[in-house]
Design brief:
binds cobalt (II) ion, 9-stranded mixed β-sheet, alpha+beta
Length: 134
């Protein structure tokens, strides 16, 4: 059911040093920071040949990743995002398999302007999983 890995999101305490790591040490194609105010994050996109890494930093007091950074002051992996072609079907299928779909099981428009949902990390081997309809 799931398709390509769309991105891996890493929360970082310092976007400049994280950008420098990926640009200079790893030699990757790294974007300028982009503020996504409605999502409460500033994002740097690291474009790899087969997928991308999103470096996330909290934006604003109510950022959904502020607590994560408090608990993980060095930063860390936040979620993986898999592509699906029909998100409503995916939700129905996974709920039927006993997985908890966050946000009352309703997709919302994600950071890329496409419908997304998140699955409970306890149902994903300790990993927060995002599904994005592409
Ligand atoms: Co994501």
């Amino acid at each position: 059911m799931i398709g390509n890995l769309n991105h891996v999101a890493i929360v970082v305490p310092d976007l400049n040093s994280a950008s420098r790591l990926y640009r200079e040490a790893f030699g990757a194609d790294v974007s300028a920071p982009v503020d996504l105010e409605e999502h409460g994050v500033t994002t740097v996109f690291v474009n790899l040949p087969n997928t991308r890494i999103e470096l996330l930093h909290p934006l604003g007091e109510n950022s959904p990743i502020r607590r994560f950074l408090e608990n993980n002051p060095d930063g860390g992996m936040h979620h993986v995002c898999y592509e699906v072609t029909d998100i409503e079907n995916a939700i129905q299928h996974l709920a039927g398999q006993g997985l908890r779909v966050l946000g009352e099981g309703k997709p919302r428009i994600g950071a890329h302007g496409k419908p997304v949902v998140f699955l409970h990390p306890k149902d994903g081997i300790g990993t927060l999983i995002e599904l994005e309809q592409v």
